[in-house]
Amino acid sequence: MLSITSQSHPPKPSTLNPYNNQPLIITTRRSFVSVSTLIPFVLFQPSKLIAQPATSNNKTILSGLTSTKSWFRFYGDGFAIRVPPDFEDIMEPEDYNAGLSLYGDKAKPKTFAARFATPDGSEVVSVVLRPTNQLKITFLEAKDVSDFGTLKEARKIFVPGGTNLYSARAIKIKEDEGYRTYYFYEFGNDDQHAAVVAAVNRGKTIIAGVIAPESKWVDDGVKLRSAAVSLTVL
User: For the residues of 73-88, what is the DSSP string, one character each?
Assistant: First the structure.
């Protein structure tokens, strides 16, 4: 989804454990929206912000996001996400129509459920939808992203191999029927920096990803994290 690949540079060893066993619990969907203006970097939120080199384990998740309230809110199939200003819709016409044409007895799945980019195409916000049983073989329908395993166990599903994991966090959002879990990961290599937020709803995995060159993440990382964090399951 993010098209981030391992480069010739060897991964830099992480000096911090990116996992935090204490999930962030937000009591209501509304409060999550307001807190998302403060959360540090995405989503579902990292315990330690590594957009800039972190030298302390005390980085708060409230230090790396910006308000997205004024941004355009895109509504997709079972989700919504905020789009940063100046980002353009780059979905191709065939992406919108995918699934209408039949190949044998199966419809061609859409690659993306949403896709936006800066005018130069260097920074991208994407959302993809996949049946959970395509990501992890199971006879049971996944109802929550935690059904993929712990935050650490699910890393292999959502984080490309050969990249450096900078931060990871499980976030619980209170909804009408209980809590929904979101998994957040921030990772990259010497050339690219990305963040992913993943959630599950009724057997469908919703993955929001943002990516930019490492050189641009210094200036735009907060904005991109905030876009990823704005993912909401409807």
Answer: EEE-SSEEEEE-TT-E
